[in-house]
């Protein structure tokens, strides 16, 4: 008699938990895209994804927990994307250009997620997740500083404090993208950042090259 195969009881539930968590975050992003971060509410999220109130609280604790979790998921995804572009670049100039264009391209490809990052940062900074935000920002900046330092020592970049260089390189593109995301091109808003992709990248390089 063939033996009965007992399914692993942990596999399906784990997948279901992951899927449910993502469903809730997707619903939260949809709420934010429609009405801003303030539109992310327990009732609004539940109505969009069908999750029970108990499930939402189980995964995220409360409404602020949803906002913070979505923020960090997007933040880390953006960081990985930009870092991948930097890692693939050959040479210091190509690296600086990759930082700018990698960031710009990510924003243009995912405007709702990018807008949420800008909108939710203040709320996360004022929440119990403040230390996590500070640590995430520190790690991102530390990685950039570590990349800039050897090029500064070699003379390829200006002899400036390396902690200043990420702001010089990324400040203009972040500022333009933020302004673009806050407006509406159909109602007199700014043109897409792709229109100024080359100009922003060139300005970043000129700001730090030796």
From TrEMBL:
Residues 18-78 form the HTH tetR-type domain. Keywords: DNA-binding. The keyword Membrane does not apply. It comes from the Bacteria. InterPro entries: Homeodomain-like_sf, HTH-type_TetR-like_transc_reg, HTH_TetR, Tet_transcr_reg_TetR-rel_C_sf. Signal peptide: none annotated. Residues 41-60 bind DNA. The keyword DNA-binding applies. This is TetR/AcrR family transcriptional regulator. It comes from Acidovorax facilis.
């Amino acid at each position: 008699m063939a033996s009965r195969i007992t399914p692993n009881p942990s596999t399906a539930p784990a997948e279901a938990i992951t899927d449910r968590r993502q469903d809730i975050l997707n619903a939260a992003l949809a709420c934010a895209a429609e009405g801003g971060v303030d539109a992310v509410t327990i009732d609004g999220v539940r109505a969009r994804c069908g999750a029970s109130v108990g499930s939402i609280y189980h995964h995220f604790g409360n409404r602020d927990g949803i906002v913070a979790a979505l923020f960090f998921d997007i933040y880390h995804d953006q960081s990985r994307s930009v870092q991948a572009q930097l890692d693939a670049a050959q040479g210091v100039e190509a690296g600086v250009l990759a930082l700018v264009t990698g960031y710009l391209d990510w924003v243009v490809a995912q405007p709702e997620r990018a807008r949420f990052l800008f909108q939710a940062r203040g709320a996360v900074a004022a929440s119990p997740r403040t230390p996590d935000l500070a640590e995430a920002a520190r790690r991102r900046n530390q990685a950039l500083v570590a990349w800039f330092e050897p090029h500064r020592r070699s003379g390829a970049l200006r002899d400036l404090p390396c902690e200043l260089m990420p702001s010089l390189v990324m400040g203009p593109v972040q500022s333009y993208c933020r302004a673009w995301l806050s407006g509406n091109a159909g109602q007199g808003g700014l043109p897409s950042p792709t229109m100024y992709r080359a100009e922003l990248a060139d300005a970043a390089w000129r700001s730090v090259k030796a």
